[in-house]
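As noted in the main text, all predictions were made from sequence alone. Below is one such record, for Unconventional myosin-Ih.
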Amino acid sequence: TSEMLHNICIRNLVRKYCRGVTAERKVQLQQKVVTSAVFRGKKEGYQQSLNQPFLDTRLKESEINPRVLQLIQGETIKYVTPVIKYDRNGFKARERLLVLTQSSAYVVEMAKIKQKIDYATLKGISTSNLRDGIVVIHVPEDNKQKGDVLLQCDHVFELVTKLCMLANKQNLVKVVQGSLQFRIGAGKEGTMVFAVGQEPQVFKAKTGQLTVV
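Prediction:
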């Protein structure tokens, strides 16, 4: 009888907890479960991210240029965040916005859409195992795409989680060690090397590789 009562008590406590979870809290928990599956034990900084709630978005729709909103009219914006985009040739750093809708990801410069990636064609998402904010979005080799997208974001766990959940491609996220290859375009590939140093920096090495410290 004691064992039966114990099980009933546990079930009742669980039921009370679940019924008390708000819709916002449920969304947070669902996202954190995906983050855990992708990053736990793989990327530095994951443990410190556990107690940091994900925001719905880093920029409100009203903060986006009206021209951009007009260009993506008909799609519901789900998440927006400032990012640093690195050119595939020369690796010059440029300030951009990454706009995620229900069906596509947009790299935006002021009033221009620089690149659109349909989730259906997304080939993969890569990041390193170190404490950096690099995210590489891998795209297909076709005339519509210039090449893979090289980004740096202050909220890497949040960004990758939002992106892979919207694209429904959690299994395509890779946490790499040492280096990774990315497509520059027209059948060409580049290399990104990850290293540990005293200060964080991103630069083009003498070897021509993009080095992330």
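Residues 104 and 118 are 4 Å apart (CA to CA). Helices lie at 2-20, 23-39, 46-49, 66-71, 156-167. These features were considered when defining construct boundaries for the mutagenesis experiments described in Section 2.9.
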